Amino acid sequence: MKKIITVVGARPQIIKAAAFSRAVKKLGEGVLQEVLVHSGQHYDEGMSQVFFDEMGIPTPAHNLAVGSGSHAAQTARILEGLERVFSEEKPTAVLVYGDTNTTLAAALVASKMFIPVVHVEAGLRSFNKRMPEEINRIATDHVSTLLFAPTQTAIDNLNREGFSSDVNHTPTIDQPLVLRSGDVMYDNAIHFANRPEGDVYLKSLSLEKERYAVATIHRDNNTDFPDRLNGILDALQHWSSEHGMPVVLPTHPRLLKFLSESQQDNLHKAGIRLVPPASYVQMIALLASSRLVFTDSGGLQKEAYFVQRPCVILRPETEWVELTAGGHAIVADADTSRILQAARQLMNRSFEAWPQLYGDGHAANQICQSIIQYL
Ligand code: UD1
To answer: Widest CA span of the chain, in angstroms?
Structure first.
């Protein structure tokens, strides 16, 4: 029996782990065992436990409880903790998601212990190395043995960095295998759509279908710089008064740290409804009934697309270039007038086609089968 350790830590990884855990349960019997490890990078109930409960994810066998800190301190604590866990568990491989400090730490520890690294969401690039996530994803890809790329763009990025697309060899860290898998987040969006808890949530907020926008802001590049944060918040207030619709903003703890109580009151008065972080089912329901989405989250950009909602991207660039190429999303950064202009453009456009850019909803099954086959 092969043993795979899946390492999660931040909210989006916990969500992605749900899809892979379902696949291992279905396809792995007798051949593949999954051991889940939580770094504890995210630790608030609403940022972590709620997803385990709602999405039926197994309880982690180990929780390192590293908590917050500078990038170095947080990453260092995860490195040390994982070395202990991997020595004890002796896994066949270690699976990591995305681009967080947890991803980087797990990939470094495993590769130096000669344990093959499986990177899900490989090949994504923003081409902006001032983002900690860009460093994390490049470093992780380059110590991985199996790279699962969600899109053709991701495959192209890997090829440009010297990764071969040849699949006729046994994968090693020196000759890794690149496979196009589709996106496990799309698997989840299908699996968890239209749940009654979603309707209950919308009712509790008294929201009318397509009569509100959803916004999220959590990147340090936006929250930690008052000019940028104010640029975004001004745009949201303008949009709300222009259309007479509220903007629902589930708050990441990092954002709340930068908003005083009086600022929060003023935002409420201006139509920005700050609400606690949403669960996964709540978020999908919130997006699906909205008129428009404003976000700096990579995951939410795609989730908006999955439920066919246009999106204003509150960043200088995006890794998910298919979204902007098709006109379903527009990059507007933190600039008030660009954000408002993008919102107007998207609201005036009618979208006939939402092509399947992210696979067929079975990405996790494919990843699971490939792990069984290749490792
Ligand atoms: C991390 C990831 C980012 C991902 C995001 C999803 C890195 C470098 N970044 O960013 O790629 O998009 O998660 O949310 O790994 N905090 C709490 N409670 C929590 C979690 C965080 O209060 O449960 C606060 C802490 O004060 C912390 C801050 O939020 O300092 C930021 O958390 P951190 O994990 O460092 O990064 P994120 O901004 O969440």
So the answer is: 61
Compute CA 305 distance to the chain's CA centroid, rounded to the nearest angstrom. 14
Residue 218 known to be catalytic? yes
Nearby residues of 201 by Cβ (< 8 Å), 6 or more positions away: 278, 279, 281, 282, 285, 286
> Does 219 sit in the ligand 1 pocket, CB within 6 Å?
no
In tens, the pLDDT along 30-80 reads 999 999 999 999 999 999 999 999 999 999 999 999 999 999 999 999 999
Which atom of ligand 1 lies at the shortest distance from residue 69's CA?
A: 30
The token duo for 271 is 């139509």
Given the residues 38, 42, 62, 218, select the one marked as catalytic: 218
Q: Quick one: which of 363, 371, 374 has its CA closest to 33? A: 371
**Contact at 8 Å (CB) between 246 and 240?**
yes
Ligand 1 atom closest to 46 (CA): 23
| DSSP-derived secondary structure letter, 99 | T
Instruction: Report the alpha-carbon distance of residue 223 to residue 326 in Å, rounded.
Output: 29
Any atom of ligand 1 within 6 Å of the Cβ of 218: yes
